[in-house]
Write a structure and sequence with these properties.
It is built from 16 helices and 17 strands. The radius of gyration is 27 Å and the shape is globular. Helix 11 packs parallel to helix 13, helix 14 packs antiparallel against helix 16 and helix 15 crosses helix 16. Helix content is 35%, strand content 16%. The protein is α/β, with parallel strands linked by helices and 651 residues long. It starts with a helix and ends with a strand.
Length: 651
């Protein structure tokens, strides 16, 4: 079904060109909206034009902290850095860091010092520093030296009146949840990239990022000095009303050109891996597919493939807002390429496929797993000169990132491909020399095949997508049952048996959703839709059999009742479509609606993410049972309430 496509793409991919593009992109040091990001966008536009795509365009959306897009989102101001220096002037004179030598030493969105700079003493604080932990003005006229990321202490620094922030943190605190955590000795000269909000504020604030070695030297000086340590900072930078650039280009479709497959690779962030690799692999995929189509090796795609680049997540919202009428109808699938060039053999980590969200399960997971399995089995020589290159890969739960369009509001199933963990994440050490032609080539082959198969798909492929989804979810169900019963067979465990049944039935409902989602490629084909329904029925029955079998292993005496039917609510078949990405906060509702919402109870908030424009109220109620049942009448009342508030639409 895909072998000839995969082989053609592997044969055409040019990783040498892609690596050169990554080096050029990285040299722009594009962190946030501003000149660096604009230079990178211009390079991408030129490369898309050279690659034979159509309509390559840069759209300068306002970066003014005023203009609102989807759900009130606003782009921060444009940042224009020029130069910066941080020095010790007492008790010794020495330079700590210079922007000209390492641009990431200056915290993104820092504002300027007065001409000639500022000189001040240092206040040292350890550990998290929320704004509630400081008093207004307590650091007035001084530097705040912290071991936390500069952005996390921004509010406290502004409230306390600090003139600037100095940080020698090298690992984001949230990384503790995704080990291994980067330790100081892992990279003593690494400088971590951090960012301030870039919002309008009456109080200017700048910041510097130090390496472990630089931070230790400064800390020793402060501890050992018999007189106050004074630093001098000079920053030339400005936050202005400017633009947050969005670039896109297309490979046009034929008979279904109005339907699109989107590729999202964020343009912001300064690393070669994160995310020059995602942007430049997108260009190479566009060139590869265009060349194969022009050579007649591959027939033209039926659907349009659109390549898109902007600031991570929020930079895409203006374009999506302008095209919101097409969501869930003409944009049928997507792909997120984020940090895909890491040398896995040298730096460790995996290629990770982040799956679809629980609330919007999709066939794309099974399709991408099939393609990654195929490319991982290929000889390394097909992708690079390193015959010992490795390509370990795994799956992980939904992450979000630029795959946020998988959410039911957008309803664009979008797998995310990322290499992780990464010891040089968001740092000065994320450089072009650490990129791997093997990783880029294998990801490119899987991603290119994924895009082309979706762009060409008809009813036959829809049946195949459904089969892949059914197989994928059967494996997940079997793993879930095995995990639940492992170690729990020593004595009957009725509670564990009940929990197993509930969780496996929940997986069965997601499996059904994933299979039936493939029907979007079989519009108007009764035969294909009948096959998909049969596959969905089969995987549902499979889940029920596994649930019963697993429960009886945990408790041989258990009697598993059939799933309870939903109450006979007359409005149980209504279908709601969200008109907003996020649920409105209760405070924005009318007083009457606030009362109605409060009466429904706190669990009503769980309903929102399951609304995707296709599920009935009854189907939503079924999918909410796993974490605590919500009555069908409550679901219906919630949908009616949100409709009255203009947050959802009920035809």
């Amino acid at each position: 079904m895909f072998r000839s496509v995969l082989d053609a793409i592997i044969g055409e991919l040019n990783m040498g060109s892609c690596l050169r593009d990554i080096a050029n992109h990285w040299s722009c040091r594009c962190t946030v909206p501003g000149p660096g990001m604009r230079r990178a966008a211009e390079i991408l536009k030129r490369r898309y034009e050279e690659s034979g795509t159509t309509g390559a365009e840069i759209i300068p959306y306002p970066a003014d902290d005023r203009t609102e897009f989807l759900d009130g989102s606003r782009n921060p101001l444009e940042w224009r850095p020029e130069d910066a220096t941080l020095s010790v002037v007492q008790p010794v004179k020495e330079t700590i860091c210079r922007y000209a030598e390492e641009p990431l030493c200056l915290v993104s969105n820092s504002t300027a010092t007065p001409p000639g700079g500022v000189t001040a003493e240092v206040v040292v604080r350890h550990g998290p520093l929320p704004a509630t932990a400081v008093a207004p003005g307590e650091m007035a006229g001084r530097f705040l030296f912290t071991d936390q990321p500069a952005g996390t202490v921004e509010a406290a620094a502004r409230k306390a009146g600090a003139i600037g922030v100095i940080s020698d943190c090298i690992s984001p605190p949230w990384l503790v949840q995704y080990p291994p955590v980067r330790e100081p000795e892992d990279a003593p000269d690494l400088v971590m990239w951090t960012i301030f909000s870039g919002r309008r504020d009456d109080r200017p604030l700048f910041g510097f990022n130090l390496s472990v070695r630089q931070g230790r030297r400064l800390r020793r000086l402060i501890e050992q000095s018999s007189e106050p340590v004074r630093l001098h900072a000079e920053v030339r930078a400005e936050l202005v009303e400017g633009s947050s650039d969005f670039i896109h280009a297309t490979i046009p479709g034929t008979d279904l050109a109005e339907e699109e497959i989107w590729v999202l690779a964020h343009l912001s962030e300064p690393g070669a891996r994160d995310n020059a690799s995602g942007c430049c692999l997108s260009v190479e995929l566009a060139r590869t597919l265009t060349a194969l189509i022009r050579q007649g090796v591959l027939p033209p795609p039926r659907r349009t493939i659109r390549f898109m680049h902007a600031v991570e997540v929020h930079g895409f919202l203006p374009f999506i807002d302008a095209n919101r009428d097409r969501l869930g109808r003409q944009v049928v699938a997507g792909l997120c390429l984020d940090s895909v060039g890491l040398d896995l053999a040298h730096d460790g980590g995996f290629l990770v496929l982040y799956r679809s969200p629980e609330q919007n399960a999709s066939f794309v997971d099974g399709l991408m797993e099939t393609l990654l399995g195929a490319v991982s089995a290929e000889p390394a020589a097909r992708f690079s000169r390193d015959n010992y290159a490795t390509f370990p890969w795994r799956t992980a739960p939904f992450w979000g990132n630029d795959a946020f369009i998988s959410d039911g509001f957008f309803d664009i199933p979008t797998p995310q491909l990322t290499t992780w963990p990464d010891r040089y994440y968001h740092s000065s050490h994320d450089t072009p020399d650490r990129m791997s032609a093997d990783t880029l080539g294998r990801v490119g082959a899987a991603a290119g095949s994924f895009l082309y198969l979706l762009a060409r798909a008809d009813a036959a492929e829809a049946r195949w997508f459904g089969l892949l989804a059914a197989d994928d979810w059967k494996r997940r169900i079997c793993r879930a049952v095995t995990e639940k019963i492992t170690g729990g067979l020593s004595e009957p465990n009725p509670a564990a048996a009940d929990q197993l049944v509930a969780s496996v039935r929940h997986l069965g409902l997601q499996a059904r959703d994933a299979v039936m989602q493939a029907a979007r490629f079989a519009q108007g084909d009764p035969g294909a839709n009948e096959v998909l329904r049969a596959l969905a029925d089969d995987v549902s029955a499979f889940a029920e059999r596994e649930a019963i079998g697993g429960a009886r292993l945990l408790d041989p005496t258990v009697e598993v009742a059939r799933p309870a039917a939903s109450a006979g609510e007359p409005d149980g078949e209504i279908v709601a479509r969200r008109l907003r990405w996020h649920a409105p906060s209760p405070q924005t509702l009318s007083p009457a609606s606030q009362e109605r919402l409060a009466a429904l109870g706190p669990n009503a908030a769980r309903i929102w993410p399951w609304i995707n424009g296709r599920r009935t109220a009854r189907e939503i109620e079924e999918r909410l049972r796993f974490e605590g049942q919500i009555p069908l009448e409550t679901v219906v009342e919630y949908l009616r309430l949100m409709s009255a508030e203009g947050a959802v639409e009920i035809p």
